[in-house]
């Protein structure tokens, strides 16, 4: 036997031994969830969770890691070892598209609770990893852009994490990442292999932070105006949800209400149109409506997603915080659209009724005394807050009970 043959056989045997060892470890952890030992898991799998490992064993290892992220126990286990998380992050840049995609999917699963999100954002070896992920998601040629958007969407959902990411984004002033995000998902041909719909979720999460909202509503950049048409983007519920959530968050800032309701943005018709149905109104009522809501076709349908309808109502409610906002919204005959929508919603999702009734109370109620014109500035005593909360819960129970009776 030649020396070359001996070396080949030794190498082959080494590979077989490694695969056998890994297979045994996989078998053990697959059927002994209760006996998980994090140090043992790190010893068995950590050596294969890096780019320099053999492709076949890397694939087996990340396959298994992806599998355990489907369970709460598995995610908790991974969260106890930073080195394992760093290993998974390293494999997102593997040359194998299959391995990198599985690594992203494992991180997406892992980032489903706040504690795990914070761990990912604070890995020792990957400082400010969120900026790198966002830039990669905005890379026109990145085939994993949608997976990156899903990961960022999960990571930024908790407000603390959104705040951390927002600070990193806003510090990257030269890159103008907020405007780039909007430009990317507004362009259907931006990335030929990815639709970037989950990027709207990232934007919605970041818009929890006021400094991000200020940048979104920069009057010189026309960012809000670009996203308004996507309120009715029929191709994607995900995209509509993210856009409406972003707009709702922006409506919390009273300083921008006049601008949002004014001619430059004209947000009210955009928020009302998805709530409008095919109902006909008399000539007088019709003329008071915004032009976009007049003489709608007989086949006009309302927004199909209940959570989006609720956010639209809540956004209009926020715009009613000041006397000027209330006066404008009432002058556009908003009430008749909400009235008909309320009738329709009672048989579709009665859980939205409290939000609708809050808005109706403002639209048909008397104006508060001058000292209370700014509803956001009114301080409500704690005992009254508790009373209102209890009444809301009782009303909701009654509404749901009525719905059950009707179904029966």
Structure description:
The chain is mainly alpha-helical and 408 residues long. It folds into four domains: 111 residues; 123 residues, Leucine-rich Repeat Variant (Alpha Horseshoe), CATH 1.25.10; 112 residues, no CATH class; 29 residues. It has 23 helices and no strands. The longest helix has 29 residues. It is elongated. The C terminus is likely disordered.
Q: For the CA atoms, what is the radius of gyration?
A: 27 Å
Level-1 CATH class name of the largest domain: Mainly Alpha
CATH architecture level-2 label of the largest domain:
Alpha Horseshoe
Largest sheet: none
Task: Point out poorly predicted stretches.
Answer: 4-31, 403-408
Shape: elongated
Structural class estimated from helices and strands? mainly alpha
Main attributes?
23 helices; Leucine-rich Repeat Variant; 4 domains; 408 residues; single chain; mainly alpha
Describe, in short, the structure shown:
The protein is mostly helical. 63% of the residues lie in helices and 0% in strands.
Give the helices and strands, then pairings:
Elements: H1 3-31, H2 38-45, H3 55-68, H4 72-78, H5 82-91, H6 97-110, H7 114-121, H8 129-137, H9 145-155, H10 159-171, H11 177-186, H12 199-206, H13 210-216, H14 223-227, H15 237-250, H16 257-261, H17 267-272, H18 283-288, H19 306-319, H20 323-331, H21 334-345, H22 353-364, H23 382-407
Helix pairs in contact: 1-3, 3-6, 5-6, 6-9, 7-10, 8-9, 9-12, 12-15, 15-19, 19-22, 21-22
């Amino acid at each position: 036997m030649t020396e070359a043959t001996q070396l080949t056989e030794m190498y082959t045997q080494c590979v077989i031994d490694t695969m056998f060892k890994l297979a045994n470890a996989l078998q053990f952890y697959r059927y002994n969830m209760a006996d998980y030992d994090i140090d043992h898991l790190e010893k068995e799998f950590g050596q294969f969770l890096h780019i320099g490992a053999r492709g076949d064993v890397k694939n087996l290892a990340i396959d298994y890691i992806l599998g355990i992220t489907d369970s709460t126990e598995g995610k908790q286990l991974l969260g106890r070892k930073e080195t394992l998380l760093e290993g998974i992050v390293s494999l997102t840049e593997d040359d194998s598209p299959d391995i990198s995609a599985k690594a992203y999917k494992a991180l997406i699963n892992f980032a489903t609770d706040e504690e795990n999100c914070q761990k990912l954002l604070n890995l020792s070896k990957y400082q400010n990893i969120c900026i790198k992920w966002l830039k990669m998601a905005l890379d026109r040629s990145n085939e994993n852009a949608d997976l990156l958007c899903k990961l960022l969407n999960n990571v930024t959902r908790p407000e603390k994490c959104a705040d951390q990411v927002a600070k990193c984004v806003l510090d990257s002033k030269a890159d103008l990442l907020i405007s780039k995000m909007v430009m990317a998902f507004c362009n259907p041909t931006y990335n030929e292999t990815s639709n970037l719909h989950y990027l709207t979720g990232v934007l919605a999460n970041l818009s929890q932070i006021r400094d991000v909202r200020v940048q979104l509503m920069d009057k010189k950049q026309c960012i809000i105006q670009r996203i308004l048409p996507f309120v009715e983007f029929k191709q994607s519920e995900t995209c509509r949800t993210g856009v409406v959530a972003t707009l709702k968050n922006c409506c919390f800032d009273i300083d921008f209400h006049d601008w949002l309701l004014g001619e430059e943005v004209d947000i009210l018709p955009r928020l009302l149109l998805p709530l409008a149905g095919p109902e006909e109104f008399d000539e007088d009522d019709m003329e008071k409506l915004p032009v976009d809501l007049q003489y709608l076709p007989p086949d006009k349908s309302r927004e199909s997603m209940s959570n989006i309808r609720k956010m639209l109502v809540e956004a209009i409610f926020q715009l009613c915080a000041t006397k000027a906002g209330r006066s404008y919204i009432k002058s556009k005959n908003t009430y008749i659209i909400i009235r008909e929508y309320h009738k329709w919603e009672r048989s579709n999702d009665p859980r939205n009724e409290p939000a609708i009734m809050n808005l109706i109370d403002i639209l048909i109620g008397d104006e508060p005394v001058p000292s209370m014109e700014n509803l956001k500035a009114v301080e409500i005593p704690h005992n009254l807050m508790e009373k209102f909360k209890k009444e809301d819960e009782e009303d909701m129970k009654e509404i749901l009970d009525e719905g059950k009776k009707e179904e029966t």
